Prior knowledge:
41% helix, two-stranded antiparallel sheet, 3 domains, single chain, alpha/beta
Amino acid sequence: MKSNKTYPLGGIVMIEKVEKEFGLFSTIFKNLGGNAKNFISITKLHIYNKLTHSVSVRQIPNAYPEELMKQLGMKGKPSERTLYRTLERIGRYFPVVLGRYQHFVEENGIVDNNQIIDFSSTYIEGEKAELASYGYSRDKRPDKLQINFGISTGINGIPTALTIQKGNVQDKKHMREMLKIVSKVLPENSLLIFDAGANTKANKEKIRKLGYHYLSLKAKKIKTYQKYTEFFKSEIGAMPLFHFCQLSLVENRMQKEIGKNIMNNCKGRGRFFPAYISWKTGMKK
């Protein structure tokens, strides 16, 4: 007896709404499929998978029913080979995809001036990936080859840039590549927020040269900030990062009371950042 399979509708609704109102998929992936059939539909399937169960690529045909495939515009279930070929083609045209995406977010006015930049890694089981190398493993798997990636996301939750680097690239070097990408879409006076790994003199000088400001952790300098931490606990208290960056009244008070070094518990859009932060903006009056 054939068993029925259920699947979440939330991902379908989101994908259809974004495509209907903004034409996201047809704009970014137009003419990239070549002779491949259902290229955009299969791309939507990959996105849907990440929005829902996030199973491995090879398990997608088994995890979701044929009705879902048809709802996304396919005639039936794609083969495992087709799923991987679609990803391979997206990777091959990654610079084009990223360029179109940045143009899309800029054109629709959804680029936030306050950007959170973060770097991470993911290990792989195979040995054929050109970018795969041994390096500092955030997955606690130093025995596995890995790939590093970076993402810049606005306080509004909209990503603006993605970078992919070899698995042995350090954050301070990775940041240089990220700055090349974000500078294509961010306006002057944007605020870049990042962790200690990318906090180097050269990177900060580059940020200021680009006309941006920065907010970063000052590594292993907790004692420097103790009096400022007490100030925030007593006078301002825990404040969401969004309000921290936006409220000019608070911002002016911070500059008046404690100058350029400030600290705060920053929690914004589901992403936690270290409690001890240094304000290094050199903002123009």
